[in-house]
Amino acid sequence: METAEKKKNILSLQLNVDDFLPATSDEKESLVIMRESVGFWQDGLRRFRKNKIAMTALVIVLIIMVFAFIIPAFYPYAYEQQIKGSERLGVMQYSASEQERMASGESVFPHILGTDQNGRDYAIRVMVGARVSMTVGIVASVIILLIGATYGAIAGYFGGMADMIMMRIVDILYTIPDVLIIILLAQVLEYPLQTLSKVPGFGWIGALGPNMVSMFVVFGLLYWVGMARIIRGQIMLLKQNEYVTAASAMGATNGRIIRKHLLTNCIGTLIVTTTLQIPSSIFTESFLSFLGLGVQAPMPSLGSLASNALNGFQTYPEKLFAPAFMIFVIILSFNLLGDGLRDAFDPKLKA
Fold first, then answer.
1. What are phi and psi of 93, to 5 degrees?
2. Residue range 232-243: average pLDDT?
């Protein structure tokens, strides 16, 4: 008796009709190996979240921001408040008057890091010092980004004589000593800033002092040259691509090409350079404050706190370790965060 299905002879040249049947839906889905289409920012964030070191650095930066900007609003002491009889207290110590208040049943908040020579709580001064340093770093980096990216993009895109003249200006600015300019500007701007600080709404200028304002001016005048050189090199490579030629042929203006096509493709470089500029600016501010060229007293800075703590280092070493450790953590966290953002958003590093 013959079977319902005949065994096919492997040596036969006859084609099997079943092999040419349309594929089913399940078979089609099993052949799809392409991943889901995502945008530039979605893909960058996905890659960034996989970087554990960068995510840890981001969490530390957020904790520092809470420590510097939020906690001082609820802290029971002010950074300029001088508590009589509480000079040079150690960690978690109380003055004699505070101990008497505690003995009478009153609740007194401890001095977590002690007090300085003027009886001011040291923990709140470290918080406000971190706020000043973070503000200087972020504001200075934004200024450097805006000036350096614009200047470098124009020089790299137009090239030729314009590029040569603009880059020679950059070379000249590299030779200007920044510390000397800050000292000179502080002297020149002292009287105008004092006059301006009396105007309603500009009182913050008097709190910062001429040294800090002159520091921002120097960041805007001198420190953008490194950013400009990096962006210029990127633009000179990108402007040779076909999409730039196509955009120009379609009538796009030079400004639109620079803004929409060239700087957009430099986003990875812009992000990492700006992020790494923040710790550099913080270090510069701390160094100048250590030399006495920072914010005006009684407002603290991490550099000025470290400078004042040198006098009593052997007796109260924690007064130096606290601001120094804060500077170390801030700079390290931003460096690791910048490396993670570069790995996530640089198209050349995509696997």
1. -105, 160
2. 86
- Residue owning tokens 């690791």: 336
Nearest Cα residue to 205 out of 219, 192, 218? 192
- Which residue do the tokens 């980096």 mark? 141
User: Please, which contacts does 78-85 make with residues 24 or more away whose CB atoms are closer than 8 Å?
Assistant: 78/124, 79/120, 79/121, 79/124, 79/125, 79/127, 79/128, 79/298, 79/299, 79/300, 80/120, 80/298, 80/299, 81/120, 81/121, 82/118, 82/119, 82/120, 83/115, 83/119, 83/120, 83/121, 84/119, 85/119
CA gap 63, 342 in Å, rounded: 22
- Chain segment 61-83, per-residue pLDDT in tens: 999 999 999 998 888 888 888 88
Question: pLDDT value at position 55?
Answer: 92
Q: Would the CA dihedral through 285, 286, 288, 293 be positive or negative?
A: positive
Task: State how far the Cα of 316 lies from the Cα of 90, in Å rounded to an integer.
Answer: 7
Give the model's pLDDT for residue 328.
92
CA distance 142 to 40: 23
Residue 249 in tokens: 């042929």
- Joined together, the tokens standing for residue 268 give 């990875």
The tokens for 23 are 């594929």
Q: What is the CA radius of gyration of the chain?
A: 30
CA–CA–CA angle 285, 170, 303 (5° rounding): 5
Tell the residue number behind the tokens 């379609």, with chain if given: 250
Q: Report yes or no: 126 and 299 within 8 Å, Cβ to Cβ.
A: no
